[in-house]
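Subject: design request, 315 residues
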């Protein structure tokens, strides 16, 4: 198992380095001079040249990349072209908000999807199983931002039970933090929960037809007992794989949800930086999002190795 984990760590490192190269080059292909954008169209050539020197954009690309990559390794994201302030404190502040939102939404999605998907598989010929399958199909078809808008219209504007937007740090007012967290988490978790419910249902249905489950029942276990003791662990393997993929989708969905609910996370920071053409901030935030996605997928891969003994033996 240790060898398998080391392979996953090496894959993570290589993927992240390749991603830094791709993001850096892509940012340099976007038309526009950061110095010109920062100073405006009326800037003199002398001032433009001085600003390019301050930004470091007058140096060769390889030098710019190595300096930026070295800063990433040290946790130094550089200085914003627009505000001339250090990007690192802003990113560290925003990443906490985004992680709370994404991880809470994924936890809620799994807590809903696992029991519902299992029940839908066990009762797939009954009304409740068909209803859960139909409901999950509808949930998959609804975009996250639309779910957010509908939740605001119903629970914030219509009923007045919850605030429509904004963010309160848990250290400031934990009660208000929970109240403002509910709607965006439900908006994100509803779509992901529907997707995961369908995968759990399919995985459990496949396991229920396996020979080892029939053997367990022949030895005296009930249908549910055999499923709980022998089936769910095997059904968890494809679900964990899909969860790793859906985490990336959840992070992307959080970018839009943060804008809908006016949440000061990485998504809002990224959209503001794109609108202001603050390219260094854009590429730094993108790399933080890439790092979060890769780390979460690394955790999923390690869990996959722990659960599946075949991978440990092959390693």
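Subject: RE: design request

Done. Sequence follows.
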């Amino acid at each position: 198992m240790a060898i398998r984990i080391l392979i996953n760590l090496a894959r993570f490192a290589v993927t992240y380095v390749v991603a830094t190269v791709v993001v850096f080059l892509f940012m340099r292909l976007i038309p526009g001079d950061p110095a010109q954008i920062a100073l405006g169209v009326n800037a003199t050539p002398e001032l433009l040249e001085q600003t390019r020197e301050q930004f470091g954009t007058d140096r060769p690309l390889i030098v710019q990349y190595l300096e930026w990559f070295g800063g990433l390794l040290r946790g130094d994201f550089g200085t914003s072209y627009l505000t001339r302030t250090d990007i690192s404190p802003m990113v560290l502040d925003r990443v906490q908000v985004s992680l709370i939102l994404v991880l809470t939404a994924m936890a809620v999605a799994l807590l809903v999807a696992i029991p519902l998907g299992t029940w839908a598989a066990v009762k797939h010929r009954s009304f409740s199983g068909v209803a859960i399958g139909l409901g999950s199909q509808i949930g998959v078809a609804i975009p996250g931002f639309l779910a957010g808008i509908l939740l605001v219209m119903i629970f914030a504007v219509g009923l007045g039970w919850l605030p429509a937007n904004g963010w309160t740090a848990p250290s400031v007012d934990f009660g208000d933090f929970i109240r403002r967290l509910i709607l965006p988490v439900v908006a994100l978790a509803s779509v992901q929960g529907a997707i995961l419910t369908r995968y759990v249902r399919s995985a459990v249905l496949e396991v229920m037809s396996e020979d080892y489950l029939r053997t367990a029942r022949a030895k005296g276990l009930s249908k549910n007992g055999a499923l709980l003791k022998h089936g769910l662990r095997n059904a968890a393997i494809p679900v964990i794989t899909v969860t790793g993929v859906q985490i990336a989708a959840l992070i992307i969905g959080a970018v839009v949800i943060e804008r809908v609910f006016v949440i000061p996370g990485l998504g809002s920071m990224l959209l503001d930086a794109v609108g202001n053409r603050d390219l260094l901030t854009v590429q730094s935030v993108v790399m933080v999002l890439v790092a979060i996605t890769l780390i979460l997928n690394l955790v999923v891969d390690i869990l996959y190795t722990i659960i599946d003994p075949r991978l440990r033996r092959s390693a």
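The two ends are 6 Å apart (CA to CA).
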